[in-house]
User: Which sequence fits this backbone?
């Protein structure tokens, strides 16, 4: 079987440079590898309160960002999760094959629920990994590019596939998580010990930030003691993060970057990083604005949903038949 790659992003906030490096910049490479199904995870966005207009606008932005990054609708399917009813239908089935003990051990659930009162924790947040597993299973995806924080969810999906196949036969395809080596975890500029995550106006570079704002944020980024531009995540987390950003955008190794900046002062190094980010994002932003203006994302989403439904419905029927549901 040829590689089938599935990836998605929740439209819950402004996308950051971290999202660009981890997902959008790799689109061409993924399309060259195999068949890509790329979804906007709007159903997942409902697990925590979100303003309806914000959800709609974020979904539009995501579609436009994917296209601005070079997504080719002929070689991939870009679609809204909510446009494919099979996601919800399969979720209603598969929630019976994952257990409360497993779900309660999920790190992301424990982290998010710890900040909430018990009566404010929705079932959707608790059962998030079930729907995520269904997203993957529906498309027979064997490659799932994710951040390090999502690998636990992929392992749960693999457990589900094993459990289901052991009971009903070879029905579901086994997925594999794939974490990018360079740029897999872009950190906040204001606190390089935490991930860049859509919520820190000072530490996050947003994809719609003005170039002057981008430069100011990078020049104000937290650095470390000493003056050497060297990768050392423990002792130099700030410099290491900036090196990671530069290497990811320039497609070079950390050691190559260390040689380039061997005699640089921090200020000059930051300027070079800012130049690299702006050189990458300015043409990207221009393409995004044109796509928003002509609304070309609408046809792409509609066609992508048709492609996705054709595959997802086949998988759903295969599962329904396997478990004994009457298909008429």
Assistant:
């Amino acid at each position: 079987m040829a590689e089938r790659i599935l990836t998605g992003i929740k439209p819950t906030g402004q996308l950051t440079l971290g999202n660009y490096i981890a997902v959008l910049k790799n689109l061409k490479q993924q399309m060259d590898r195999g068949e890509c199904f790329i979804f906007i995870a709007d159903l997942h966005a409902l697990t925590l309160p979100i303003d309806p207009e914000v959800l709609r606008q974020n979904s539009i932005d995501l579609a436009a960002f994917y296209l601005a990054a070079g997504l080719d609708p002929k070689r991939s399917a870009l679609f809204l999760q909510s446009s494919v009813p099979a996601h919800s239908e399969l979720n209603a089935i598969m929630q019976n094959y994952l257990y409360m003990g497993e779900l309660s051990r999920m790190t992301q659930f424990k982290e998010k629920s710890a900040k909430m009162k018990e009566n404010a924790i929705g079932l959707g947040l608790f059962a998030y990994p079930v729907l995520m597993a269904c997203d993957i299973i529906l498309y027979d995806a064997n490659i799932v590019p994710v951040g390090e924080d999502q690998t636990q969810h992929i392992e749960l999906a693999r457990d589900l596939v094993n459990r289901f196949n052991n009971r009903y036969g070879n029905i579901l395809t086994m997925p594999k998580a794939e974490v990018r080596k360079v740029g897999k975890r872009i950190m906040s500029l204001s606190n390089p010990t935490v991930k860049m995550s859509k919520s820190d106006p000072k530490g996050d570079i947003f994809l719609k930030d003005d170039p002057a704002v981008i430069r100011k944020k990078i020049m104000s980024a937290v650095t470390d003691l000493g003056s050497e531009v060297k990768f050392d995540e423990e002792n130099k987390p700030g410099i290491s993060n900036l090196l990671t950003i530069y290497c990811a955008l320039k497609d070079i190794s950390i050691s190559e970057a260390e040689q380039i900046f061997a005699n640089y002062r921090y200020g000059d190094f930051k300027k070079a990083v800012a130049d690299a980010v702006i050189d990458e994002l300015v043409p990207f932003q221009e393409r995004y604005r044109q796509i928003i203006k002509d609304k070309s994302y609408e046809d792409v989403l509609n066609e992508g949903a048709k492609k996705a439904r054709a595959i997802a419905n086949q998988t759903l029927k295969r599962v329904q038949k396997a478990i004994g549901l009457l298909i008429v």
Observations:
- The chain has a mean pLDDT of 91.
